[in-house]
Sequence to fold (167 residues):
Amino acid sequence: MDRFRRWQILSSIAYYAVVWFLGLQSGLVGPTLGGLATLFGESSATALSPMFTCRAVGFLGGTLLVGVVFDISIHQHVSLVVAVMGLAAGLAMLPHLPSTATYYALHVPLGLCLGFVDTGVNLLILDAWKGGNSTPWMNLLHFMWGVGSFMSPLLLTFLTVRSSYLV
Fold:
């Protein structure tokens, strides 16, 4: 196997792992919303619903930012790793925040990292398999998101709300 083909396969595996992680975190929100509301002293999970708007605003910013960063930088993988680390750190902090206001505020940068990583991985998988044969690899990328989303509620049956965000 030549060096370029090995790079294609290894980088694709890394992208699939990242997207699996994105799927896990997206499937985490719904089942833990009631537990988070209790942690923040709210009477119902609907009190946390503005989080979705905050995350969406950040996501939009992240999708725009990734285009600019990838156009001006030759280190796309480094910026992707930084965004993944930001997403992981933000998720680990979520159940330990002191109030709902900080919960809402943290979802803007979380959405930014999520949009950056989601769009960035899609761009990088297309770049790795350019030449017209990227379709199956792109489909597998989105399948991995679905696998992560499916697995997340199953894993939550064994974890508490706080520990689920750390995992």
Q: What stands out?
A: The mean pLDDT is 90.
